[in-house]
TrEMBL record:
<keyword id="KW-0067">ATP-binding</keyword>
<dbReference type="GO" id="GO:0005634">
    <property type="term" value="C:nucleus"/>
</dbReference>
<dbReference type="GO" id="GO:0004017">
    <property type="term" value="F:AMP kinase activity"/>
</dbReference>
<feature type="binding site">
    <location>
        <position position="112"/>
    </location>
    <ligand>
        <name>ATP</name>
    </ligand>
</feature>
<feature type="binding site">
    <location>
        <position position="19"/>
    </location>
    <ligand>
        <name>ATP</name>
    </ligand>
</feature>
<keyword id="KW-0539">Nucleus</keyword>
<keyword id="KW-0698">rRNA processing</keyword>
<dbReference type="GO" id="GO:0005524">
    <property type="term" value="F:ATP binding"/>
</dbReference>
<keyword id="KW-0963">Cytoplasm</keyword>
<feature type="region of interest" description="NMPbind">
    <location>
        <begin position="36"/>
        <end position="59"/>
    </location>
</feature>
<dbReference type="GO" id="GO:0016887">
    <property type="term" value="F:ATP hydrolysis activity"/>
</dbReference>
<dbReference type="GO" id="GO:0006364">
    <property type="term" value="P:rRNA processing"/>
</dbReference>
<keyword id="KW-0418">Kinase</keyword>
<protein>
    <recommendedName>
        <fullName>Adenylate kinase isoenzyme 6 homolog</fullName>
        <ecNumber>2.7.4.3</ecNumber>
    </recommendedName>
</protein>
<keyword id="KW-0547">Nucleotide-binding</keyword>
<feature type="binding site">
    <location>
        <position position="18"/>
    </location>
    <ligand>
        <name>ATP</name>
    </ligand>
</feature>
<feature type="binding site">
    <location>
        <position position="16"/>
    </location>
    <ligand>
        <name>ATP</name>
    </ligand>
</feature>
Length: 178
């Protein structure tokens, strides 16, 4: 049983579904720490170079886990990343998989000027529910939650729900006052 006094949450999903926006709002409202894996990979060089076709870093997962282990084990992290199967089960208390309508996602990724191959791969991944599958295969089903993130109203509702979950987690673990 983990001894952390604040839970760790993964916010995952296909690029463009709203992970960073949700994490920033949540961090502001709850005081939990937004751990942007993208930023860690870049800043702490947890990669094996740059993939030109996909315009992204080739992540070295072992290096990444080493880089964040100490911080995550202390608890209170909101992990923002478009994969989730690499994090040990014992680190994680809640996995939120954000979903977005394909047309909306297309617009968001086009606005980022993603190369065609990357855009198509991400749309396929959303349609095939790749991240939802990955989350369900990697964690106990009762800690995996799928939430829609197409509209601003949905985002507000999601943040409220996660905040309520956090309150409950703290009450259950007897750390509500801390
Ligand atoms: P990710 O971190 O998953 O790549 P972002 O948080 O960067 O996604 O969001 C991509 C874009 O979509 C941003 O411009 C953001 O404001 C917008 N967005 C994300 N979620 C929503 C939502 N639920 N409603 C409206 N706009 C959203």
């Amino acid at each position: 049983m983990a001894t952390r006094t604040s839970p760790n949450i993964i916010i995952t999903g296909t690029p463009g579904v709203g992970k960073t926006t949700h994490c920033e709002l949540l961090a502001e409202r709850t005081g939990l720490k937004h751990l942007s894996v993208n930023q860690v990979v870049k800043d702490r060089e947890c990669h094996e170079g740059w993939d030109d076709e996909f315009q992204s870093w080739i992540v070295d997962e072992d290096k990444l886990l080493d880089a964040i282990e100490e911080e995550v084990k202390e608890g209170g992290c909101i992990i923002d990343w478009h994969a989730c199967d690499l994090f040990p089960k014992s680190w994680i208390d809640l996995v939120v998989v954000l979903r977005a309508d394909t047309t909306t996602l297309y617009d968001r990724l086009s606005a980022r000027k993603y190369p065609e191959a990357k855009l198509q791969e991400n749309l396929d991944s959303e349609i095939m529910e790749v991240l939802l599958e990955e989350a369900r295969e990697s964690y106990d089903e009762e800690i995996v939650v799928e939430l829609q993130s197409t509209t601003a109203d949905e985002m507000d509702t999601n943040v409220d729900r996660i905040e309520a979950w956090l309150k409950q987690w703290k009450a259950d673990s007897g750390t509500a006052a801390s």
